[in-house]
């Protein structure tokens, strides 16, 4: 198990329908008896299967739409993750490999400049063809060839490509989450408010927010365990941080409503200058997917359109909103290093939130809850290279370094992240005005 | 027959697949033996059927996409035309009438302000639901109720609603054409260039362009026959026009290429000021759907991607391009009244172009060809009310008057227009920079 | 006198400060005893002098600013009108002629493509240099050389250039009006609301609006007298118009307020589709320069910021607003030909409005007032060439033809137009959303 | 002296015309014999005088223009810096104090939300009034009252306001630099290319770029001396940094040209993702103010339009360009803490560059040159609060904290910065696409 304790995905989580597969993934990763070939093949099958299982309730039409430039159509995600294995493994391994359509490389490349021209990202929603059926056939074609690879490749060949497969699987898990958040955005545009999962009402109350003291000092940060990591989690390096206080849980919808009712969105002094400009430009007056009805505030969730639950953690806020809320509350956000330090000091029970929204009292003796798999937590750290960071060679190396500006780091994973994809050194990142991810708020404070 | 001569839709026309139904429509209109009820019911069935037949080759995904704000997804067209009958007939006629979904009125209203709020037009492509299947079910629901109406309505009720049905049928025929041009635009965005119809190569040469003299004077314009007409074709009124000359046929791709090769798109003095601004803003250097390949100019058609045929009439040009071409050629466009006068002076054989592109020698003794059903011909007349025009009462009356600014009139009908929907007083209209319709160029000259 | 009767510019007119010079211009035009040379020289001096006199109250800073792309800085107007004489006369007449700065041709060309590249129009306000002083020196330089021309040129040379001078003087008079409307726009941006002229309160009440019947028929339109005209007023040509009714005076602020209070700006059914889109996009809820204060509606005028006078004619409305008001009032606008026909049927006393805002009872026996020099009257005619119109050769020929799309014709001249520049065949034109000109509303009706 | 050594501003510096006053400022700051009152009064007079002296060569028109939203007109700078003293001192100190115009508070407030509404920043260039003369009168009015304050205020009152005066003086010095960079931008728009200072040709060659090793460790950062500092330089705090290498001088135009000639602007792999998007959107292919002529690359400087000098340090590059150049060179930028560490390790001679462009060999025995007063050096540190940072109370406290997102820190001061305003803990900051400041490139490298 990744953090030494079993995660249990509860019934209200978006990932609940794939929790069995997700748990298998964790077990495979931890199983010392499996060969590399067995591990990779099993994981390949499960990860690829999860992607498709997450789409089970989609109609053909749902796969096609791009509701804003940041969003990609579901069928693009399905094809792009296949293109990854095709391009970085199959085409290299097998000179005879044939793609179903030579234009797919152009259509399903995302930002890998070195691999050739790309179809203009904001226009992904203009493509009715290839059809969803053809995209699934493309997946099958790639899978069949990958299975052939797993069967035929010599051990040294397998080993040579194992890093590519590892990245490909993690890449696909990232796209699983993006696919869910993208579908949520697409559905939210529709007055019919389709739902993807069955809503199970939350019956728990958010506990009192406690302030826990964390000791700083000169310690190490970055990935230092076995297992997969992204280039941006390295090198392991030293940093000095001061002692600080961290909130025991995420901020709830109820607390956020207090901020709103205290004219939070109207008081420029609470905001970063660019943040208030974003408020005015985008006419923000609540988190994304919230709607004011006569009966009160409602929000759209993948479980449908329903009344805002004041006990759930507030989600779909931008960095600017998280920062303004913190200032209003007389607090601040954590740096990503403080977050990582917190994660090192607390033994985690790994209980997972339901619907990624709320879990009231994990590990009550320690006091710290909702660190993993509830919501990505905005930190006040800009996304920058660690000291001594080197951009990896080759096309896959374009992966992370090029995005290291104008973004903020989020930590912890959300209710739409696979368990097996969560770790405490993982650095997610989004621009400060992004709101369509499952992003929430945890507060920190300086020592007095 | 509408113009006294039989139209024959040739094999290269987009409408070829529905030519049999289209000819039936003409015969029904001219059949004096049919009752009003029979006429309306038969026409209703055929028109609604044509709409669906035109979609036969579409994949589900093709129905969903809106490739620019002017374009509507095919499924929107299918639903909106049904909404029309539901709203203006069924809901009035039958107090008990139930729509499948009360939100459809919101989603499928276009610009009928009086009928309620409308879903934002440029966001029609954001809706994956209702699905295509549900939209077809909606059509069936409306059709079933309409058939009930045709069966149950008393004669006087039928008569009362006959005008609404008449408008509804013509409205649907308009949307048939828009649906085709919209699908063409959607497909053109796709590097896979899907085709809708089978291409049949043109083997004919464009004849020599002749100048025919037309006598003007003080004559009458506007609709003055039996049969359906739009409010904008009335009142019948007098105008004085000078004698003038008209070109015997449309301008060909070959002639337009000469203009392009003579730096037509670079010479500001050939253009209206707003026209040249549009050239620079949109980086126009050819008609829409033309692409410069190493092998020469290609264009995308509903029959696929192929080499530009120099004998076909040039299509998909804006008013600005038509005007600039005319200036380059030492000529001008016709006014809409000159066009109507031409149509009155010449006996029409009614031969129809194939693929709406080309017909070399209709009525060679008279010399005038390609007047109907090839391409909509840009006139130099802005779209304005006729003297004494009154906006009709009621929601359907919003129809035409509100668009009477910033647009130019086109006459004649295109290869995507139903025969039964073409007449010589018909006023189509589009903004001067619109290019996604089947719009072409016919020249005129003042007498010396 | 242009219309056979003496105009008297009253004290409230913007042009009042130059009324003496303006009257002299009229007298010179009508004086049969003056030679061509004397006439042109005298007129040149007066017209050039008026331009500068209109700027007398400006501070140096006022000359520099471009408050929107349509507006040009005053110093640009001063320079551009000089550039005209330099380019089209001096540089042709005198091979030795030296411009003060070779870049002036680039900076002060407006849209005469054939004369060379032009400085980007929307960036005219980015130029602090040449300074105002240098621009006046440029004017003097051009004037000195023009005086040399008037002294030295042989009669046949003078005659050869007389058309250019004539156009240059009319061109400068157009820019006098634009300069005033542009300054008004610049000043209106400033919370200090500077004023250019002294406000004299209006004490007259608007008379009752009467409907006068005008007989139509087949008559001639276009310029048919001696004296200067623009290419767009020709050829003289026949048109047929129906009998119609015309309002005896312009619509007042008071009447327009009724429209506003009747939710005129909120009722889509009153508007052209593009008009209502403009209302929404620009958030129009009143004429330009109107501001809602607690004490009621105020407007900014060149005479300062003051309470809206309900007796003055409403000004600074777009075509869309004029059209919507007319529809609300159960009437319509005139066509430009109806307007011209009205002007032919009524003997005009030529009394001029004060401040271009209001004159209650000119020619009360005839009933028709405020036809000239109050406000430009929007007509429902798009700006199009007359039948047989030919674009003149040469650079000056770019003048009018290229603007013949997407604009509407206004007739009559405003309180900022020189008397000597007004005539009943004059066709002014602006896009339908333009509001910064002195544009007003006169209603018409069809006969019942 | 600020850094213990006398700075000598050389003849090619923009600040040369005020070097005598600037040196006086340094001496006053270091003079232990002066009373607080004497110090503040003397400094007030000199700083205010420098602002006006820098404008000596401006024409009235030059004061008015805003060439882009980031730029403010010179007269706005003159007024805003006066408004600062009026608002934060005079209006508080003297109940009877009268501003010349109550609207000035609205017009000349910049972003101090707590002090009231502000005139929209991008529209500062729309104001012709108050005139330049009136603005200078406003300055005099404020100065007269400030002199009265210096004369009349009791010691404890003086002391109470000394912090406000200190901020006001530093604030004015910041605006001196902005005023110069803004004027440069305004002038650069003008094809006449006005110059503000006399150009003196550089005769020195850039020395060889050396790599110096700096030892890191756990050390302190932030302001820790006497004298003024901004809130963002505090608290003094510990950080751990690794050993690293720093370049001995700034990158030259010649070196940057090599990057350009190696297709630096076309190779996506060299750029941050947002950086390459900025290149494409803004069509960057050289630093700001560079123009490709047939004779080679030219640039506009405040000394006029001239050939690019390959020995001068490259200026007017964005963060994105600095970052891409560094990547191309196999290096990186410094963090702001590395920069500060460098500044602590090297004894500075304080020689200043001429025209802020180049100084080849300051302190050659130590090897490090051009650290202060040449160009602001982009660091790879985003602009964020130091650990424990508290936003100061009150309106002046809005000063820095609110800008702490989406910007990068620059260090060192430029040729347009007053000597007395430079210190090694000073944190300047601009968005990564800003280019109109004097910003340059110093490289760093990790230890191997």
Give a structural overview.
The structure is a homotetramer of 448-residue chains. With 448 residues, chain A is α+β, with helices and mostly antiparallel strands. In chain A, a hairpin with a 2-residue loop joins strand 6 and strand 7. Chain A starts with 18 loop residues before the first helix and ends with a strand. In chain A, 49% of the residues are buried. Chains in contact: A-B, A-D, B-C, C-D. The interface between A and D is medium-sized, with 35 and 35 residues.
Number of strands of chain A: 13
- Tell me the β content of chain A: 5-15%
Mean pLDDT of chain A: 90
Termini Cα gap of chain A: 38 Å
Overall 3D form of chain A: globular
Strand order of the largest sheet of chain A: 1-4-13-8
> Biggest sheet of chain A: strands, sense, closure?
4 strands, antiparallel
Largest interface: A-D, 35 and 35 residues
Instruction: Specify the helix fraction band of chain A.
Output: 25-40%
Sequence-ordered SSE layout with sheet pairings:
Four copies of one chain form a homotetramer.
Chain A lengths: L18 H12 L5 H18 L20 H20 L10 H5 L23 H21 L2 H34 L22 E4 L2 E5 L15 E5 L2 E4 L5 H9 L11 H10 L7 E4 L2 E6 L2 E4 L11 H10 L3 E2 L2 H10 L30 E7 L15 H4 L6 E4 L16 E3 L8 E2 L2 E4 L2
Parallel strand pairs in A: 9-12
Antiparallel strand pairs in A: 1-4, 2-3, 4-13, 5-6, 6-7, 8-13, 9-10, 10-11
Features:
disordered N terminus, homotetramer, 448 residues, alpha+beta, globular
What is this entry, summarized?
Chain A has 448 residues and is α+β, with helices and mostly antiparallel strands. The first copy, chain A, contains 11 helices and 13 strands. The first copy, chain A, has a 4-stranded antiparallel β-sheet. In chain A, strands 11-10-9-12 form a 4-stranded mixed β-sheet.
């Amino acid at each position: 198990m990744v953090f030494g304790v079993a995660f249990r995905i509860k019934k209200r989580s978006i990932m609940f329908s794939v929790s069995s597969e997700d748990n298998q993934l964790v077990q495979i990763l931890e199983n010392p008896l499996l060969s590399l070939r067995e591990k990779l093949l099993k994981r390949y099958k499960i990860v690829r299967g999860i992607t498709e299982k997450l789409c089970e309730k989609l109609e053909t039409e749902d796969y096609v739409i791009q509701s804003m430039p940041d969003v990609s159509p579901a069928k693009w995600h399905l094809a792009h993750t296949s293109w990854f294995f095709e391009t970085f493994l199959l085409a290299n391994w097998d000179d005879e490999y044939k793609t179903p359509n030579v234009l797919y490389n152009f259509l399903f490349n995302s930002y890998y400049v070195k691999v050739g021209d790309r179809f203009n990202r904001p226009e992904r929603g203009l493509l009715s063809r290839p059809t969803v059926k053809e995209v699934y056939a493309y997946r099958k074609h790639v899978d069949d060839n990958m299975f052939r690879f797993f069967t035929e490749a010599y051990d040294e060949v397998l080993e040579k490509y194992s890093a590519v497969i590892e990245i490909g699987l993690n890449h696909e898990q990232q796209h699983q989450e993006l696919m869910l958040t993208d579908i949520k955005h697409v559905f939210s545009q529709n007055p019919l408010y389709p739902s993807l999962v069955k809503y199970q009402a939350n019956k728990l109350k958010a506990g009192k927010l406690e302030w826990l003291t964390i000791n700083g000092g000169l310690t190490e940060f970055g990935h230092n365990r076995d297992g997969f990591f992204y280039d941006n989690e390295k090198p392991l390096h030293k940093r000095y941080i001061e002692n600080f206080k961290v909130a025991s849980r995420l901020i709830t919808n109820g607390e956020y409503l207090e901020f709103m009712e205290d004219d939070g969105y109207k008081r420029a002094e609470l905001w970063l200058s660019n943040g208030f400009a974003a408020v005015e430009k985008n006419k923000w007056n609540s988190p994304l997917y919230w709607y004011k009805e006569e009966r009160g505030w409602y929000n759209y969730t993948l479980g449908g359109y329903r009344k805002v639950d004041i006990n759930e953690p507030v989600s779909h806020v931008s960095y600017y909103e998280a920062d303004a809320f913190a200032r209003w509350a007389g607090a601040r956000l954590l740096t990503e290093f403080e977050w990582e330090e917190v994660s090192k000091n607390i033994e985690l029970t790994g209980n997972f939130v339901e619907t990624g929204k709320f879990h009231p009292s994990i590990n009550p003796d320690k006091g710290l809850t909702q660190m993993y798999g509830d919501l990505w937590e905005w930190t006040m750290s800009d996304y920058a290279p660690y000291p001594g960071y080197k951009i990896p060679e080759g096309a896959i190396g374009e992966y992370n370094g090029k995005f290291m500006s104008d973004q903020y780091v989020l930590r912890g994973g959300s209710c739409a992240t696979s368990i097996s994809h969560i770790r405490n050194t993982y650095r997610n990142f989004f621009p400060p005005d992004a709101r369509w991810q499952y992003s929430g708020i945890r507060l920190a404070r300086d020592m007095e």
